[in-house]
Design brief:
Blueprint lengths: L6 H10 L10 E2 L9 E2 L2 E5 L4 E5 L24 E6 L7 E3 L3 E3 L1 H13 L3 E5 L15 E3 L11 E16 L5 H6 L4 H20 L8 H7 L9 H27 L13 H6 L25 H11 L9 E4 H9 L8 E4 L5 E9 L6 H13 L2 H25 L8 H34 L1
Parallel strand pairs: 5-8, 5-9
Antiparallel strand pairs: 1-2, 3-4, 6-7, 9-13, 10-11, 10-12, 10-13
Organism: Anopheles arabiensis
Subcellular location: Cell membrane
Keywords: Cell membrane, Glycoprotein, Membrane, Receptor, Transmembrane, Transmembrane helix
Length: 446
């Protein structure tokens, strides 16, 4: 460089372009009796410490040129790496106390904090202004607009994607089945039983002193020794009524199964063939129309439904979100709005997860090399599988706790309906019996 060049402007120029390994050689014009210019004191600057490294150009040693390029990333002296990323398990997620954790945070902590002696701050909003003197974030995750310039993106080895959440209803419609518990053929059998018992009493009063149905249902009194035909008919009627009541109870219990009432698609293909609709407010559905043909509600309609119902919209419509958010949503069971959702088995769309560094970032080479070594050592995949297994264990533990519950509170509704219906029928029968006795007594008096 010309000795008249401003040293501060020169170092600022290299700093803006992310160049750390440079050495400036100030040269004076050659003397009249010399054929080459005179080299002054060589220098380079460390932007993280504002420290100058000065070298005597006359004390030149060709065998140790590395001393002119000190590793300025060996210690960045508390430099704050400002990062922004969309929360996606297990890479970035929030834990208690607004603390950010995840696999990517572990990578940055090991590299920036432990190896380079810096700090990391992950922000939650892309509208957060960068720190003074910076025009953009040092690093962004899964929120990338690809730029045309060279080498500022690091793609992770695995792919991400979106999953579909659908509502899962557990309400049971027992009343309709209680009021119509049997088929037409069973009703014919019951009618024939009632008519037959009444006819036997009228045709053979010596053998059937009391109504058989009264003896069976209401334990009406009868003499101890009954004729053999009476015992055969009474036993047959009791066995028939017993099996009918057991079949009725078994049918009610079987109707407690959710699959008896609700269509529950488990894959994207089954979702397309079902009656479910997918509503994603605030998202251009044209981007997903090919993945879910004919299932997407228009953006305008989805926005209107969301303004009208809020989150309760997803109690009737499916929606789509990051798979980690979908699985986390299912682990909590019923949400604060009182309904439950489940996740389809397969993804709707896959995408690359990308780390993008700031323009002319000095950390690109170091981050790319460190991530490659981190992945090749097996630590990355080990931690990735560990976090996924941990999430699966939490989901299984919640599922096992739910499976231990045989009956829920709403299941008791059918029991109360049976009891109330029995009370009503008993009351009607008792009142009818009183009226009948009163009428017989009145007719007997006259």
């Amino acid at each position: 460089m010309d000795t008249a060049c401003n040293r501060t402007e020169l170092t600022s120029f290299f700093h803006r372009h992310g160049v750390l390994n440079y050495v400036a050689i100030p040269l004076e014009p050659p003397e009249p009796n010399s054929a080459r210019p005179i080299a002054q004191e060589l220098y380079t600057a460390n932007p993280f410490t504002n420290e100058w490294h000065l070298f005597d150009g006359r004390d030149h040693n060709r065998s140790s040129t590395a001393r002119y390029y000190p590793n300025k990333l060996a210690n960045i002296h508390g430099y704050e790496l400002l990062a922004f990323g969309l929360y996606e398990f297990p890479y970035i997620f929030e834990v208690t106390g607004n603390h950010t954790a995840g696999l990517l945070m572990e990578l940055l902590h090991n590299l920036i904090v432990r190896k380079l002696n810096g700090t990391v701050r992950m922000v939650r909003s892309e509208r957060t202004p960068p720190l003074p003197g910076r025009t953009e974030f040092d690093l962004t995750f899964a929120y990338t607009s690809f730029r045309a310039h060279y080498m500022h993106d690091v793609s992770l080895k695995e792919r991400g994607g979106y999953c579909v959440l659908c509502p899962f209803h557990t309400e049971r419609d027992f009343l309709r089945h209680l009021l119509k518990p049997f088929s037409f053929g069973i009703w014919v059998v019951l009618g024939a039983l009632i008519v037959g018992c009444r006819l036997l009493g009228h045709l053979f009063p010596a053998l059937f002193e009391r109504n058989l149905l009264e003896q069976i249902f209401f334990t009406a009194g009868a003499s101890h020794r009954q004729p053999f035909p009476t015992r055969i008919v009474s036993f047959s009627a009791a066995v028939l009524i017993f099996f009918l009541s057991e079949a009725y109870n078994a049918k009610i219990v079987s109707l407690m199964s959710d699959s008896k009432y609700f269509d529950r698609p488990e894959s994207v293909r089954e979702l397309i063939e079902s009656d479910f609709k997918v509503a994603i407010p605030g998202v251009r559905v044209s981007l997903l129309a090919e993945s879910l043909p004919g299932k997407l509600v228009s953006r305008r309609r989805a926005d209107a439904l969301y303004r009208e119902r809020g989150p309760l919209l997803f109690n009737e419509y499916c929606t789509m979100t990051y798979c980690y958010l979908a699985y986390l949503q299912t682990t909590i069971g019923r949400n604060i709005h009182g309904f439950q959702q489940y996740v389809l088995r397969d993804m709707v769309s896959e995408q690359l997860r990308t780390l993008q560094l700031a323009t002319h970032s000095p950390f690109y080479d170091t981050l790319a090399e460190y991530y490659e070594r981190y992945f090749q050592s097996g630590i990355w995949m080990y931690r990735l599988e560990y976090m996924n297994r941990k999430l699966v264990r939490e989901m299984r533990s919640l599922g096992s706790r739910l499976e231990e519950v045989v009956f829920h509170f709403e299941d008791l509704v059918c029991v109360w309906v049976l009891i109330v219906v029995g009370w009503v029928l008993s009351t009607v029968g008792f009142v009818a019996e009183l009226l009948w006795v009163w009428l017989e007594h009145r007719n007997g008096l006259f």
